[in-house]
Amino acid sequence: MAEAALVGLPAVRVLQATDDATLDTLLREEDTPFVVRGLVRDWPLVQAGLESYGAARAFLLAHARDRDFVVSIAEPDAKGRLFYDDAMAVNFRMGKGRLSDIFAQLDAAEGRDVAQAPTVYLGSVDMQEFFDGLADVHPMPMGSRTPLTSLWIGNANRIAAHNDFPDNLACRAVGRRRFTLFPPDQFANLYLGPIDITPAGRPISMVDLAAPDFATYPRFRDALATAQIAELEPGDALFIPSLWYHHVEGLADFNILVNYWWRDTPRYLGQPYNALHHAIMTIRDLPEEERAIWQAMFDHYVFSGGEAARAHLPEKGRGVLAPLDAESAQRMHHFLLRSLSL
């Protein structure tokens, strides 16, 4: 795994959350990662995993709906790293199957070296959609938040550093998992891959944390200087704020993570990555002097907060220059759909 590159990295700070109100306050006020030890230690799934990995799989099977699950499978030569091949295609194949059949593959791989067994990985499995009653017996006090709850299941694996737009509370249920975290401003030092050809929808770092090639990626040393590390045991939880990059390793023969994603901003504001794609299509390849003008316009209308762009207009005539609400955001959404379809 990645021990050589991670020697000497500081640990993510550990905070205490002894009651629901304290956890709610931490999630609302903290803007850097933190770990809460034993937060979900009493969960039935955690207890089943402490008994055995087979018991944890049996527990999930007892709640699984009779439907196909999406699974990623990489051959042994991937050595657990779900990444790209030499042609920049993903190095794993996607399939579907009943959870019992997928778990049979994990049963067969248990105890085998990562280079001798296929990597089997179920990512972002919606708890409510794929399981009956599982959420009811694994409560998580989230205050007024309405998170998306997902399971991440597999054997030993490595997921390259990437970030997510929502805030994330990641709970280690079974096995062990190591997170290496980088602040959002380190994106250039992480040498991200393409934004449209990705293993799971987000651009990932091209650097192999197990053996960083500093000749090819020299600025990665600067990223490592900002990194923090968190190793989660069963029952532990890690808060990953929005846009923080995280490299994730499943360290045991069988690993289950349960995570909660939520946004503090209204959903009608949309996904900033869509704007990035559109800007690349429409602005990036313009002549330099035109790009400079558009950069100034974006600063004026967007990155400044837009106050100067609307201050001289009467309130009723500001249109989308006014702070957005659900109705004006919907009008803009329809406008963009029409313009993109031309």
Question: What tags apply to this protein structure?
Answer:
342 residues, 13 strands, 29% helix, 11 helices, five-stranded mixed β-sheet, alpha+beta
Q: How can the largest sheet be summarized?
A: 8 strands, antiparallel
Outline, from the CA principal axes?
globular
Tell how many strands the DSSP assignment holds: 13
Structural class: alpha+beta
Q: SSE order, as H and E?
A: HHEHHEEEHEHEEEEHEEEEHHHH
Estimate the strand proportion. Answer: 15-25%
- State the low-pLDDT regions, or none: none
What is the number of helices?
Answer: 11
Strand order of the largest sheet: 1-11-8-13-6-5-2-4
Distance between the termini: 49 Å
The Rg value, from CA coordinates, equals 22 Å
Helix content: 25-40%
Mean pLDDT: 95
Structural notes for this entry:
The protein has eleven helices and 13 strands. By secondary structure, it is an alpha+beta fold. An eight-stranded antiparallel sheet has the order 1-11-8-13-6-5-2-4. Helix 3 runs antiparallel to helix 4.
